[in-house]
Design brief:
It is found in: Cytoplasm, Cytoskeleton, Spindle. By secondary structure, this protein is α/β, with parallel strands linked by helices. It has 15 helices and 32 strands.
Length: about 725
């Protein structure tokens, strides 16, 4: 879908100049590009054409929201800047609130169906754009309560006889602007994660490629605009359109109530603009803005403004409500879901990439990603956009024959952008987000054994009876807790935690550093331990030897794997693991044993082995894993068990049932097609067909991986049973 140009930066930045002889030349200079996000530019000219293919990817978003979008993009489609955020100023004392006008101007009645509350109107100090003629300039200056022209305009154009004129009061016959009516509330705010995914991936984009995303958004919005050709809305635009001097804190935007007329576009590449006229009564978020100034600006724009700068107001029919939703859908897409590099790189499944970004946004919004970590992402995104603006501005100032210093500086800025782009891509990958540089691991010192050398059995139950401990030896030291967290916090190496039926939560499960046994008594389905959604991790083991027995682990909201073995050895016996994250992850150098257990619902593989890890799986059921759409073909193959082979992990599988997974039953992930552990010549030798070659290769790889598989039942997996996958 074409996006509006942001011409205030440059008419068309040149290519990065060639490097001097001693500069690195391994990276190709990027093509000329315009910024692709709404918060990318500090300013943009209104009325400029929608971005054309080949002239750079442009954002739809408007100047009204542009100056403040950098912070809001990471936190989602913040609807509109609330009118009460406008800081009121008076000519006498800056920062003080202006009292309501004393004269009784009639308040506009609320539109049918709207709330009675209206957006407050503030008076501000600013230097307006000159209205035609001296009388017009002075009228504007009086309305905005400005000092004389010498102070407002400086020793330039405004000097002369005008600088002697005193500040005049507002004429009684001129009415101040009325408050703006409330805007239509977008239902996107209340949408669940799955609803957003269905809306964008299934209804709007419909499986299209990145280069076709513009057209898909255009088609979606065009269909909605056919519902109604005239409606009321608030035109929100950049204050720079009206004022040459103003304080950003006092005027974040200029909002004017307008009547909108939608006309069919002549072609897909034409601008998405609407015709507007000032609605009566004259309403604005700035009480003392001159009506003449607004009329003149609209005349200069030929009463045509970008569609996304207009926000429908409440109190209109359901068709307008649908139009408001469509506008918010498009704004959010170019605010948060679109990236400048999307149509420059090949992506097999673009809608899956959009789903990953929606999940990232939802994780930030609901606190799944902790605030400090989310703030780090926001700063990275903002820094990326600012660096891109710097590069474009720098390019636009380079003359036809750039110097060597200019070329080097251009490449320096380019590589900074490439680095930040890589960090943002890591955020979009669930597994990299969890185990990458964004989530520093929690460090906790081991307690070791108690000084007196004894071990304690911790009973977790609301009430303890003698029948509960009848099977324990008479010399067992007991300690009763009604809270699992307290029991874990009291443990030393060698202790045992016995849990009776009930539902529990324990953040200390993410801090297992001592060798303990945690086991349930009774049916494993009745001993439910759920994760705390506000925390990063569920079960994280760093101890030499930890055992989990006869439990049900139910993951809710945490982004980390349901169980992560960072170091040491973890044993899971007769447990149910209901995942929402990335399954069981065994990191480099760690070991895992799972027996008689069930793993289901993981967004990636049910069990994921990092390079150099060890795992033994016996008599387990692993099913319905890899439930997350992904744009990476290698990740879409993940299913039951995934192995990364450099360096080779060790895996022993016996009597497991791996079924109904969206990828392969077992996938072996290698870095490149050339790395097969066994020389390719040996694999080709004696191969009569491609199938035979693949079978031989798989057999050789399994042998060289120290992968032992006996009596496993692998069936009904979407992609197949077992496969070597190249990254």
């Amino acid at each position: 879908m074409p996006r509006p140009q942001h011409n205030a930066l440059a008419p068309g930045p040149p290519n990065i100049p060639p490097l001097p002889p001693n500069a690195p030349t391994t990276r190709k200079a990027p093509p000329p590009a315009q910024p692709g996000g709404p918060a990318l530019e500090p300013r943009r000219a209104l009325g400029s054409p929608i971005g054309r293919r080949g002239s750079g990817r442009e954002a739809w978003l408007t100047a009204a929201t542009g100056p403040r979008r950098a912070e809001e993009m990471a936190s989602g489609p913040s609807a509109v800047v609330p009118e009460d955020s406008v800081r009121s100023l008076s000519p006498g004392r800056r920062g003080e609130k202006v009292s309501p006008p004393a004269r009784g101007s009639a308040e506009p009645g609320p539109l049918k169906g709207t709330r009675s509350t209206a957006s407050p109107v503030r008076s501000v100090m600013a230097s307006p754009r000159p209205v035609k003629g001296k009388a017009g300039r002075e009228a504007a200056r009086r309305r905005l309560q400005l000092p004389p022209a010498s102070e407002a305009e400086g020793p330039g154009e405004g000097a002369g006889e005008e600088e002697e004129e005193p500040l005049l009061s507002v004429p009684e016959e001129e009415e101040e602007a009325q408050p703006l009516p409330p805007l239509s509330v977008s239902p996107m705010r209340g949408m669940w994660r799955g609803e957003k995914v269905a809306l964008y991936c299934d209804e709007v984009l419909q499986g299209c490629k990145a280069e076709d995303a513009d057209e898909a958004m255009s088609k979606y919005l065009s269909e909605k605009l056919k519902l109604k050709d005239k409606w009321l809305g608030v035109w929100k635009t950049n204050p720079e359109l009206f004022f040459v001097k103003y304080e950003e804190a006092s005027i974040p935007f200029v909002g004017i109530l307008v009547e909108v007329t939608c006309k069919p576009r002549q072609s897909v590449s034409s601008c998405f603009k609407v015709t507007v006229s000032v609605a009566e009564p004259f309403s604005c978020n700035i009480a003392n803005i001159p009506r003449d100034l607004v009329d003149e600006i609209l005349e200069e724009l030929e009463h045509s403004v970008p569609l996304l700068e207009v926000y429908p107001v409440e109190g209109q029919d359901s068709d307008i409500h649908d139009i408001a939703l469509a506008l918010e859908v498009v704004r959010f897409f170019y605010d948060f879901l679109w990236r400048d590099w999307d149509d420059e790189e090949s992506c097999e499944n673009y809608t899956a990439l959009i789903e990953e970004r929606i999940n990232l946004w939802c994780d930030i919004q609901d606190g799944t990603i902790p605030g400090p970590i989310a703030q780090r992402f926001k700063k990275t995104l903002e820094k990326y956009k600012n660096k891109r603006v710097e590069l474009i501005e720098y390019q636009s100032n380079i003359k036809e024959d750039p110097s060597a210093a200019e070329a080097v500086e251009c490449w320096k800025k380019y590589y900074e952008i490439v680095m930040l782009c890589g960090l943002l891509k890591m955020w979009e990958d669930l597994r990299l987000r969890v185990h990458g540089p964004f989530f520093p691991r929690i460090l906790r010192r081991r307690k070791g054994r108690r000084d007196f050398g004894k071990t304690i059995t911790h009973i977790v139950a609301k009430v303890m009876t003698t029948d509960m401990v009848k099977d324990l030896s008479s010399d067992t030291l007991l300690q009763q807790h009604d809270d699992l967290d307290l029991a874990l916090d009291s443990c030393y190496s060698g202790d045992t935690v016995v849990i009776f039926p009930g539902e529990y939560q324990a953040i200390n499960l993410a801090l297992l550093t001592d060798d303990i046994i945690i086991k349930g008594v009774g049916k494993r389905e009745e001993i439910m331990i759920t994760s705390e959604p506000s925390h990063d991790s569920f079960v994280v083991s760093k101890a030499d030897n930890v055992k989990l027995m006869h439990l049900s682990l139910i993951q809710q909201g945490t982004v980390d794997g349901i169980v992560v073995v960072e170091s040491g050895h973890l044993t899971i016996e007769n447990c149910i693991l209901k995942c929402e994250g990335t399954g069981v992850c065994v990191l480099t150098g760690a070991a895992l044993t799972i027996t008689d257990s069930e793993i289901t619902g993981a967004q990636g593989a049910g069990v994921e082995l990092y390079p150099g890890s060890i795992a033994i799986l016996e008599r387990n059921e692993i099913h319905h894993c890899n439930n997350l759409r992904t744009s990476d073909s290698s990740k879409s193959t993940l299913g039951g068990v995934n192995m990364k082979v450099l360096p080779a992990p060790k895996l022993k599988m016996t009597n497991n049932h791996i079924y109904n997974n969206n990828g392969y039953g077992v996938s072996i992930l290698q870095p490149t097609e050339q790395f097969f552990i066994v020389a390719e010549e040996a694999l080709n030798k004696g191969a009569a067909s491609g199938d035979k070659k693949d079978d031989n290769m798989l057999s050789k790889v399994i042998q060289n991986l120290n992968l032992e598989m006996n009596n496993n039942k692998i069936e009904a997996n979407l992609k197949g049973d077992i496969r070597i996958v190249t990254s």
